[in-house]
Amino acid sequence: MATTPMKRYRNLLKATVWEESWNRRTSREIAAIFEKRHSRVVAAVIRELARAKIVKDIDTVSHASPGSFDPRQGELFEEYSVIQVIPWAVMKNGKRVRTERRALGSLTYDELTQWIAYRQARPAKKSEPLDGYIRLHDEIAPYASGETTVEAAYRKMKKAQKRG
Fold it and tell me: Smaller CB count within 10 Å for the chain: N or C?
């Protein structure tokens, strides 16, 4: 039975980590040793490794603390301490089949309601507080209908507050 290049890579990496941990190496040192020792295996999976790293980085920046993407603009929803890109579970027959990244402002009011309910049903994680999303949801409610985007309702609310 032939092994896939990625499976071979993982098996060799696991063995190398085990061997080199006896020598009290850092992760960076082990990586350098592994690359040198198994250069052909690394070359065979480099594209897959790069894609995995990019996906991991997408996850990291998606969960980054609020901060403007464009320094010339103020942060949308900054007073709520929410992230601008949220993980959206795509469901099929009641099971999550994949997770999409969606801009918070592009969600409709109904989608935000649905997302909050979904997140509330999941076990809470300290890194994922919902307070800001719930406050945003409640405060834009008078300015939103089901198909109004969160951004449009937020801007209507801000405009109304300025008129005061």
Answer: N
Can you give the residue range of the structural domain that contains 119?
A: 78-163
Q: What is the average pLDDT across 41-64?
A: 88
Report CA 121 to chain centroid distance, whole Å. Answer: 19
What is the pTM assigned to this prediction?
0.66
Q: b/e string for 75-110 if b means 16 or more Cβ within 10 A?
A: ebbeebebbbbbebeeeeeeeeeeeeebebbebbbe
Rounded CA-CA distance 138/8 in Å is 52
Burial category of 31 from C-beta neighbours within 10 Å (exposed 0-12, middle 13-18, buried 19 and up): middle
Domain count along the chain = 2
Same domain, residue pair 84 and 155 = yes
pLDDT band per the 50, 70, 90 thresholds, residue 39: very high
Question: Which pLDDT tens digit goes with each residue over 77-105?
Answer: 888 888 888 888 888 998 888 888 888 99
Same domain, 95 and 144: yes
